[in-house]
Design brief:
Keywords: Cell membrane, Membrane, Transmembrane, Transmembrane helix. Its main location: membrane. One of its GO terms (molecular function) is transmembrane transporter activity. By secondary structure, this protein is an all-alpha fold. The chain has one domain: Orthogonal Bundle (ABC transporter involved in vitamin B12 uptake, BtuC), CATH 1.10.3470. Helices cover 78% and strands 2% of the residues. It contains 15 helices and four strands. A two-stranded antiparallel ribbon has the order 1-4. Strands 2-3 form a two-stranded antiparallel sheet. A hairpin with a 2-residue loop joins strand 2 and strand 3. It is globular and about 70 Å long.
């Protein structure tokens, strides 16, 4: 009798459905590992420590935004303005920093802080506007953020006059983009710290559970006492703040600012989030999955560079990747439910 119970337990633990779900739940990690092995064979220099750190540093620029975008998509919304906000943040920081220094109002070391504060304020107001327009007029967030994408892009171009703003930042500012701590690029450290923050937020707090509830069914969440309005304000403002962080690190890395920074990033960021298992329908997704999705797209981008893939072909590959990511995400959801 005891042997029968053990065999029954063994069969239950290793049943076909459980095994299938286990593989599906971790398929992106398996694909990432297979991709790393394949690229390391095709390009042996891929596994060099310098290249790995370079991947992490570059992934950090879009990765911190992807965490915020994950919250937005889980809540059932979308933000297409993130690339333009990256550009605008860097341009505002540079313009104000350089302008205050040249006017003799304050040294450039302090002017950069004022510039960062101004960029942060603009980002918060933008996120608030997105949430307000969504709530007040029930406009799709797709349309709202598509509009602000163009508004911010044009405004950034006007502020910088269509040319890069050079010599606009103090020496300490460069550390934010190219500095290292114990040999690790500072943006990579920020990337990991932000991941821990968002993971804790979504997994361990009531706010995180409210975000999932709103994305799953906003009306049901409202009837259960959850403020859909406040939840949308939070996620919309949070992704904009991540854009400021990325814009600051990006402008610090190249030590200049221009309106073209971040152009087109929104599709790559959304692709990373969806590859990580977040449903475009809302209510489903994890920060861990987004981390893996960001690394997955980062490895592909790095691999194409190492293998000298044509620049225009890279657009084709990135577009196809996003299409198959959405299709694969839909397929996986159906398989889990069967």
């Amino acid at each position: 009798m005891k042997s029968v119970k053990i065999d029954s337990l063994h069969m239950e633990l290793f049943s076909g459905k459980k095994t299938k779900n286990l593989i599906l739940d971790h398929l992106i990690e398996i694909l990432l590992l297979a991709l790393i092995i394949g690229v390391s064979i095709a390009a042996p220099s891929f596994l060099k420590s310098g290249n790995i750190l370079n991947i992490l540093r570059n992934a950090a620029m879009k990765g911190v935004i992807a965490y915020g975008m994950c919250l937005v998509i889980i809540s059932g919304e979308i933000d297409l303005s993130v690339g333009s906000q990256v550009a605008l943040s860097g341009v505002l920081a540079g313009f104000i920093s350089k302008g205050l220094a040249e006017a003799g109002i304050m040294p450039i070391e302090l002017g950069a802080l004022v510039g960062i504060a101004a960029a942060t304020l603009v980002a918060l107001l933008t996120g608030l506007f997105h949430a307000w327009a969504r709530q007040k007029f029930n406009m799709p967030s797709f349309i709202i953020t598509l509009a602000t994408l163009n508004v911010m892009y044009g405004f950034a171009a006007i502020v910088c006059g269509g040319f890069p703003i050079a010599n606009a930042f103090p020496t300490w500012y460069a550390f934010l983009g190219s500095g290292r701590i114990l040999g690790i690029p500072f943006p990579a450290i920020v990337f990991i710290l932000i991941f821990l923050f968002f993971w804790f937020l979504t997994e361990k707090t009531d706010l995180g559970r409210r975000i999932y509830a709103v994305g799953g069914n906003a009306e049901a969440a409202r009837l259960n006492g959850i403020s859909v309005w406040k939840t949308r304000i939070f996620v919309m403002c949070m992704v904009q703040l991540m854009c400021v962080l990325s814009g600051i690190m990006n402008s610090a890395q190249v030590r200049s600012a221009t309106f073209t920074f971040g152009r087109g990033w929104e599709t790559q960021i959304i692709s990373s989030v969806v590859i990580g298992g977040t449903s475009m329908l809302g209510g489903i997704g994890t920060i861990w999955g987004t981390l893996i999705g960001v690394l997955f797209t980062g490895v592909i981008t790095n691999a194409m560079t190492l293998l000298n893939v044509n620049e225009f072909m890279q657009y084709v590959i990135n577009g196809a990747l996003m299409f198959f990511a959405v299709m694969f995400n839909t397929y996986m959801t159906k398989k889990r439910n069967n």
